[in-house]
Write a structure and sequence with these properties.
Elements lengths: L2 E5 L5 H11 L15 H6 L9 E8 L4 E9 L2 H19 L8 H11 L6 H6 L3 E6 L8 H15 L4 E5 L5 H10 L11 E5 L2
Antiparallel strand pairs: 1-2, 2-3, 3-4, 5-6
Helix pairs in contact: 3-4
InterPro entries: Acyl_CoA_acyltransferase, GNAT_dom, MshD_Acetyltransferase
Pfam families: Acetyltransf_1
Protein name: Acyl-CoA N-acyltransferase
């Protein structure tokens, strides 16, 4: 198995969407919960190769020419929220009507497109930058999550950023353990599922 990390491009959007769906249920596949399997990715992955202030790196299984993981984020969360609010969420919302959907998870995401949550002020005070990371289950536990986070940290340092935060799914206990091992921790005013990392 030959794995590498590279900068993501807009052409990786379908792969990001697929991985997001296959990890959207607290790290497990959420395929069975959706008729519109692209919805999780449209919220939590694809914008990061489409919008300003964003960045993304992907983990690639070279033997299969397959993207199997990613770390994505924004170096300016408030600017990201504003641009997405003006240019991204409204476009997606037009395509997905919750009243036309059957499954609860599809409805949840369709409603989210109409009223996307924004970061608490405490998170922004800690750092303007946030991230999301997901790796397919078969590729977890091999140290690649740590390498993806380090790649993100190195990039953000180059951009003059001193810390980064993320929000966790409260059900994903393995993810919480992973972040704790890497030094992520609560910060002043953080919610129970928000953790941050100050760079050395």
């Amino acid at each position: 198995m030959s794995l590498t990390i590279r900068r993501a491009t807009e052409a990786d959007a379908p792969a990001l969407s697929r991985i997001c769906l296959l990890t959207a249920d607290a790290g497990k596949s959420a395929q069975s919960f959706h008729d519109h399997g692209e919805l999780p990715g449209l919220v939590y992955a694809v914008p990061y190769v489409k919008l300003p202030t964003t960045w993304a790196f992907v983990l690639v299984d070279e033997s299969k020419d397959l993207v199997v993981g990613y770390v994505v984020g924004s170096k300016d969360t408030r600017a990201y929220e504003q641009y997405a609010g003006d240019r991204w969420w409204p476009v997606q919302a037009e395509q997905y009507s919750p009243t036309a959907m059957v499954r609860d998870e599809d409805k949840k995401y369709a409603n989210l497109l109409r009223k996307m949550h924004t970061a608490p002020d405490a998170n922004i005070a800690f750092s303007p930058a946030h991230l999301h990371i997901n790796i397919l289950e078969d590729y977890q536990g091999q140290g690649w999550g740590r390498k993806l986070i380090q790649t993100a940290v190195d990039y953000l340092k180059e951009e003059g950023i001193e810390a980064v935060w993320l929000g966790m799914d409260s059900r994903n206990t393995n993810a919480r353990k992973f972040y704790t091992r890497l030094g992520f921790a609560g910060f002043t005013g953080s919610g129970p599922n928000d953790v941050g990392l100050r760079f050395q």
